[in-house]
Design brief:
By secondary structure, the protein is an alpha/beta fold. It has an 8-stranded parallel sheet. Strands 14-13-12-11-15-20-24-25 form an 8-stranded mixed sheet. Strand 13, helix 11 (281-287) and strand 14 form a beta-alpha-beta unit. The longest helix is centred in the last third of the chain and has 13 residues, at 426-438. It is globular.
């Protein structure tokens, strides 16, 4: 096959390419920073002739054009595997919905359950000399999507970094039906976390002593994991490894500080393994054609059996609420949906099973209600009615707030109640004790 000739044959305009979309179809838009761009605008321009077009994607870094057409919910329905703040707003507008999942199984969801997709459109890096289009920092599950798609449209963006990996990180021109050369916008960057708060620093200083040379790291999304990463970069720790669903900027800082070499990993030695990445332009520049960094499908990266084989695995994630039983919600508070489960279940359990492994759920002890300004405790007697439990009480290991850290592994219900209440803001502790007594998980000998 002459790849350049094939490229010319399949090259078309965005307007022409999206003509394949019909009312009622299921469409794939890619993932995060690889979400369709000019194709999105071209599809939005057809809104008057389309009804009930259902779109899948996730972790949007910009609002799609299809969300801003008149009477958008009549024409388009966004379905997200993981909500960003943009998608959360779209959900409130009646345009977006969440798809519950275990992120590690997402490629299997497509191959075994969804099985067929009418149209896939997404941004990719330019074709290489062998006819491959790299997914950039969005490998995740996209090869599985392509494998079951009836029609694939790629939107070429010269600014997408080429992310090297083990497998399933690109699609071949022989699978592609149409090629659109986009406007080459710069990579979408995640908002800067800014300076860490006093709470972030307090939590980071409690977690840092639990990490030692040779540990392997996974960091979740948010200011707290980011702060912990920055503290690690300045700590002088050595021989650390990376095996993380999401690759974030603090991993770059740790690498530049000489903390990471992956020498203690039982497999993928010397490689920083991840399923997708989002952050600053510095991060994208670091990943571009970097053989030290290995992007792989999420079914490989987040696999509990694989993670648990890595000794001294450190998982650091956040939470919205936690109750005195040790149930963790990282998705909602009541029926107010906030995010998604992502890979938290996978890494919490993987670290829990790892020899010498530690799973940390890190959060501030309180949160301020945006509507009333009232201070509320994140540690509650029970989760609010309607709250989604992301991790069960049997999975909780370390919980950390600015008031301390507590390892729930092996602890009884009354020991958990005592340990968790000690991490709550002092103004809520007496109330929590009274509720724990009603729940029969408080002993008279308990002391706070």
């Amino acid at each position: 096959m002459n790849y350049q000739e094939e490229y010319r044959k399949k090259l078309t305009t965005a307007e022409e390419a999206v003509k394949v979309v019909e009312s009622g179809m299921w469409i794939e838009y890619g993932w995060s920073t690889g979400t369709a761009n000019v194709l999105d605008q071209a599809l939005a321009n057809r809104y008057e002739e389309l009804k009930d077009v259902k779109i899948r994607g996730g972790i949007l870094t910009r609002r799609p054009a299809i969300a801003d057409v008149p009477n958008a919910p009549e024409h388009f329905c966004w379905n997200s595997w993981h909500l960003s703040g943009i998608e959360r707003k779209m959900m409130q507008e009646g345009l977006a919905y969440y798809i519950p999942l275990r992120y590690s199984e997402l490629p299997y969801y497509y191959r075994d359950n969804i099985q067929s997709v009418e149209v896939t459109m997404m941004q990719v890096a330019p074709m290489d000399e062998h006819g491959w289009f790299n997914f950039g920092p969005n490998g995740s599950h996209l090869k599985a999507v392509c494998d079951i798609s009836k029609h694939i449209i790629v939107e070429v963006n010269r600014n997408i970094p080429v992310c090297l990996g083990g497998y399933d990180n690109c699609v071949h021109i022989s699978q592609i039906d149409a090629i659109v050369e986009g406007e080459n916008p710069p990579m979408e960057t995640m908002p800067s976390a800014g300076a860490p708060s006093e709470v972030d620093l307090a939590v980071a200083n409690l977690v840092l002593p639990e990490i030692h040379d040779g540990c392997c790291l996974q960091l979740g999304i948010g200011s707290m994991p980011n702060t912990i990463g920055k503290q690690i970069a300045a700590s002088g720790l050595k021989n650390l490894g990376v095996h993380s669903e999401m690759y974030v900027d603090s991993f770059v800082e740790m690498t530049e500080a000489g903390c990471i070499n992956g020498s203690c990993k039982p497999f993928d030695k010397g490689r920083q393994v991840y399923a997708f990445a989002a952050g600053t332009q510095k991060l994208y520049d670091f990943l571009n054609n970097n053989p030290e960094c290995m992007i792989a499908p999420v079914s490989y990266v987040n696999d509990i059996a694989r993670v648990s084989q890595i000794d001294n695995f450190i998982s650091i994630n956040g939470a919205v609420d936690i109750d005195l039983y040790g149930q963790i919600s990282s998705e909602s508070t009541g029926t107010q949906h906030i995010s998604g489960s992502g890979g938290q279940q996978d890494f919490v359990m993987g670290a829990y099973l790892s020899k010498g492994g530690k799973s940390f759920i890190c959060c501030s002890s309180t949160v301020k209600d945006k509507k009333t300004g009232e201070l509320k405790s994140r540690i509650r007697p029970t989760l609010l009615e309607g709250t989604i439990a992301t991790c069960t009480r049997t999975n909780l290991m370390w919980l950390v707030t600015e008031y301390g850290k507590f390892n729930a592994k092996g602890k009884s219900t009354w020991e958990r109640a005592e340990g968790l209440i000690e991490l709550a803001h002092p103004m809520f502790r007496e109330e929590l004790i009274k509720e724990a007594e009603k729940m029969h998980i408080w002993r008279r000998s308990n002391k706070i």
